[in-house]
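Predict the assembly for these two chains.
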Amino acid sequence: MHQNEKPPLEEQITENLRRVYQQRVEEEVPDRFRDLLRMLREQDQGGETRDADE
Amino acid sequence: MPMNDPRIDPREEIVDHIGAMRAFALSLARNDAEADDLVQEALVKAWKNIASFQPGTNMQAWLFTILRNTFYSNRRKRGRELSDPEGIAAERLAEKPAHDGRLQMNEFLAAFATLPAEQREALALVGASGFSYEEAAGMCGVKVGTIKSRANRGRARLIELLHSEDAGYSDMTDQVTTAVVNAGLQGRLSA
């Protein structure tokens, strides 16, 4: 089996896709998104917006 | 205010899908900044339209649907079809320097960026994120066969761009090389 040529091109493509995709999935979520969700939650909680730490 | 128990508010689950949303957005948008703007817009919509989420169903699929609908709707509003695939490829390359010497991966990304959005989307959904053809079809609002053919055409085109040894490949490589060199120069000039 080791002597075989590379896996079929389609598999290589899928493998590359997965790698690029997975890399981004595993990145830490940037603060801007956590902040955004916090802001949306605060808006829902009746308008009393606490001063967020800038 | 009518109270949702925060412990069962499905919105609390949204944060767990942001990584996947960013990955999917990157396959649609032309660069990191645009991808994250897309994620941001989709998050706001999802938050406000949580009533349309059916508890117990796949939240990631629901979020992806919002995200891709937002992408296509913005694109329609802008009124331009992306008609400059090499430009997009160069842009993508410029922001993804070969930090670990994987020029091959950069070439892959550049080639991927030249595909029509519908094909990139199909490949991201079924090839990368592991949705079934049926799920992807549901999310894109098309038939299963359409998703299959988009994914197949996308793969075939990538193979053509990356693996053939004819002129097409050299052209692509030249564009890629030029983009990398330009990106490097710009980086150096502004540093």
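Residues 9-44 of chain A form one domain. Chain A has a mean pLDDT of 79.
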